[in-house]
Amino acid sequence: MRKFFRSRLFLVSLLLVVIAAFLPFELSAYVLGILTAGYYFGVFAMSWDLLFGFAGEVNFGPTFLIGLGAYTAAILDNQLNPPVLLCVAAGAVVAVLGGLLLAVPALRLSGPYFGLTTLVAVLLLQNAIVIFAHFTGGEIGMTVPDVLSIDAATNYWYALAFLVVSAIILYGLSRSAIGLILQASGQDAIEAQALGFNVTKHKLAAFCISAFFSGIAGALLIFYLGATSVDQVIDISIGVQIIISAVLGGRRTILGAVLGALFLICATEVLRPLGQLNTFVVSGVALAVILFFPDGLLGHVLHGRERE
Amino acid sequence: MLALQILIDGFAISSLYALGAMGFTLIFGVSGVLNLAHGGIMVVAALIGWLAAGDLGLGVFAGTAVGVLAGLVTAYVTYLLVVRPIQRSRAIPREESEIFILTGTLLWGIMIQVGMAYLFTDNPVTILPLIDGIVNIDGVRTPKNEIMIAVICWIVIGLLWFLVNRTPAGKRLLAASINPRGLTLLGTELSNIYLFVWGIYGALAGLAGVLLASFLGVGTQNVGQLTASAFSIVVVGGLGSVTGSLLAAYVVGYLETLTAYLIEPTLRPIPALLLLVIVVYIRPQGFFGRR
Lengths: 308, 291
Known about the structure:
The structure holds 2 protein chains of 2 kinds.
Chain A: H1 2-6, H2 8-22, H3 29-54, H4 62-79, H5 84-106, H6 111-131, H7 133-136, E1 142-143, H8 152-175, H9 177-187, H10 189-194, H11 199-225, E2 227-228, H12 230-233, H13 236-249, H14 255-270, H15 277-292, H16 296-307
Antiparallel strand pairs in A: 1-2
Helix pairs in contact in A: 3-8, 3-11, 3-13, 3-14, 4-5, 4-6, 4-11, 5-11, 8-9, 8-11, 9-11, 13-14, 13-15, 13-16, 14-16
Chain B: H1 2-31, H2 38-53, H3 60-88, H4 94-119, E1 134-137, E2 140-143, H5 144-166, H6 168-178, H7 180-185, H8 190-215, H9 223-237, H10 242-263, H11 270-282
Antiparallel strand pairs in B: 1-2
Helix pairs in contact in B: 1-5, 1-8, 1-9, 1-10, 2-3, 2-4, 2-8, 2-9, 3-4, 3-8, 5-6, 5-8, 9-10, 9-11, 10-11
């Protein structure tokens, strides 16, 4: 443990966090807004990486968990108007339940079959929201009466703090015994079982953790935006962006996912003048990374050193 | 009356679904690739076909041919630019290449969707019917075009069956799906077979795209939906099983038509999704799957 506190990775991360914490004194509210959304996105991508990179489960529907968290919080806030924290907690609980629901087929299916189920889960949730439009706002979406804060800097700090806490927990988890067992069961489930590890239990745990963070991040995001809609938290394109972020940053790195997410959000913002072609360029870049640098941005740095 | 209407409409749409899913299941069976750019390829074929038939003034039949050609070319581009480099990459571990192909083709599909929306239009386009006129089948007014589409689909499916089961090239395909290593040992170049099967796939997907544009209209918005429906049909039928896909296409097609007529048109895709979830839970290998 002491070795970790002296490692380069820890020092660089610490430096980055400190710099990030002082950014609100320098940057405009507009840039802060982009970064705030980017931080929540980073948590989405990290949760996805835990499932895919470590547990080896292709989850094409990260937005199923996020959407459950976001919509639960939004509906609760609209109907009963409890404190924001309670809404966020409720969102997390429902997302974990959703994660369990998704995990049940995961224990029976593998590879593309499971990926497909998650994709279908997103489509079903999307349809359900449109069908129960009087409750959920349908395709247009709904506003929430409460917001976290109206000050851009405060919102930014909330998001940063949440990102840092999640990153510490998820990264710590990935480096712990649990993370290693997950990685083993993702790469060769039979051998991991033969070694006496309960693969099922660990995968189930991974799902719950991933769902927990996705749900909280989803709920916080809508309280930051002050509104929720299918396009913002559930649409498949959002899920694709999360996957791109994690792969761009480097699978099995957790922290890389944050870099990937920030890169993606910033690239989208910089390329906005391209209009429609924006998505084309971003997807193209991601495809090129997958083809030429499958280890991603941070993968080279982290795994490269491990191999030596 | 209504029952007959459902029977006829359901048959036409199911035949189209079958045609679209057939190639999809074929490439999975032979090369183990799930191509998530499938909807993109169909839409390219439909849009190019529409352009050729309309603005370029080639007429409907030549336009259809151009559309199918466009589908073929896009399928080859997908294979050569996206799928093959991932399969051959040394940096990607073998057990992860499946996931990389899924992600890669998904990205490629999005690029096609956005690129086409930029070059053409977001709005759905409709190719003029292949033949005009309406026939009256026991009180149900049916466009001749709808019948024509079903007939074309079945002719092509028949040809495919003949190709796979009765010709030497088709038998090699079959062998590649059963035991690729054995086939290689017998002196057949596997990469040629892959090129061949991607060609068949492109032509099938292209034809399905063009016919769909002439039946219902197709736009770049449909890319995801088309991929998802092909995917669900193929999974319900059993990955890699052509017979299974055929059966599943009809089950899904009729399920959708029944929902649209009897319950509500907006709920159209939902029963098929639920069916998919149930099949995946209870019998993950599908109706006729091998695994």
